[in-house]
Amino acid sequence: MNMTIEQAGRMLADAVSYTDERRLHDALTLLRRQAPVHLVQAPEYDPFYAVTRHADIMAIERDHTLWLNEPRPILGKAAFEKLAREQAAQGIALKTLVHMDDPQHRVIRAIGADWFRPKAMRDLEGRVQELARRYVDRMAEFGGECDFATQVAVHYPLYVILSLLGLPESDFPRMLKLTQELFGGADAETRRGESAEDQFAVLLDFFAYFQDLTAARRAHPTEDLASAIANARVDGEPLSDIDTASYYVIIASAGHDTTSSTVAGGLHALIEHPAQLARLREDPGLLPLAVDEMIRWVTPVKEFMRTASADTILHDVPIKKGESVLLSYPSANRDEEVFTDPFAFDIGRDPNRHLAFGFGVHYCLGAALAKMELKALFAELLPRLESVELAGEPEWTATTFVGGIKHLPIRYKLRPSA
């Protein structure tokens, strides 16, 4: 289809664009080739530069002193960003690792880092495998047809991350709804409302829940991540209620929605590429590579923003201090300069230099957990899967930040569990 560079750039500020992957990637390909650093001026948004090449995004991620997360860590409409700045000035705004720069980022990140190191992952592996079996068994109970996205993909990683936090299963439905409202604020099916105030109300509900949790864990510490966060100290002082709640929000939401999108998108990719599904079933040793390819293929985090702390030049484009850039991860993960045949789904792709987890000091804290969850689920599912096909049209979430397939109707046959 014919498209101007200006039209292609504005698609990055249009949540609906992410529901049509072919059209989106046509736009991103055009930008990579003709305007890899392009000024976007879209209705309802403050201007930003779209950065679409892998090498340029890597250069920005490496230089975290020049390119700052604050004050604009993700793309939002101007009205929402204005409200967020006003709330921040009052000390009641969300302030997660995504919003922070060093040295604060380094100190706060360390609070939860031990819970995602190799030893902690080994300790959690049994629980993850147990949950993977539970959800494949549940697929068998559905009678050979289900919406894999809503009935399996959104629940499995949510149970994993909330188990790590130590939350009761009775609270999981509430967390699921809040997470979907947080990341689906531009999607008519999942959003609470259309205004900036409606979106901010979701954060306030998160805060209220986690403030109660913090008080409980401080009064009665337990052996879980929630207790570690609640009782953490920085320079001898406990975290504020807002900082504590913000930490919970990033763990509970980012640790769930990104993985659920990749679970659903990974199965969809295997259905759409039956030769790759057969190859993986014949050689299960390819599963670690297949998981990385699913992550590249889906790229659940669509963008992060950075703001220049000084005048600079990026790819021959001058950018002034205080101007912002959008790092397009779906574009980087289809960059022809980095990936051989980037629009092919290849479960044996090696090396796979995708940027779905970011790079540098802001590399995703839960990357190892996400990979373990994906490996566990597909290791349980594939040996039992006799057949699988689409039972309807998949639907994608309208979002400019985090998301993927929200409905994946499938028809399948499963062997009984061993």
TrEMBL record:
Source superkingdom: Bacteria
Gene3D superfamilies linked: Cytochrome P450 (1.10.630.10)
Keyword Signal belongs to the record: no
InterPro entries in the cross-refs: Cyt_P450, Cyt_P450_B, Cyt_P450_CS, Cyt_P450_sf
Keyword Heme belongs to the record: yes
Signal peptide per UniProt: none
Pfam families: p450
Entry similarity comment: Belongs to the cytochrome P450 family.
Protein name (Swiss-Prot/TrEMBL): Cytochrome P450
Lineage: Bacteria, Bacillati, Actinomycetota, Actinomycetes, Streptosporangiales
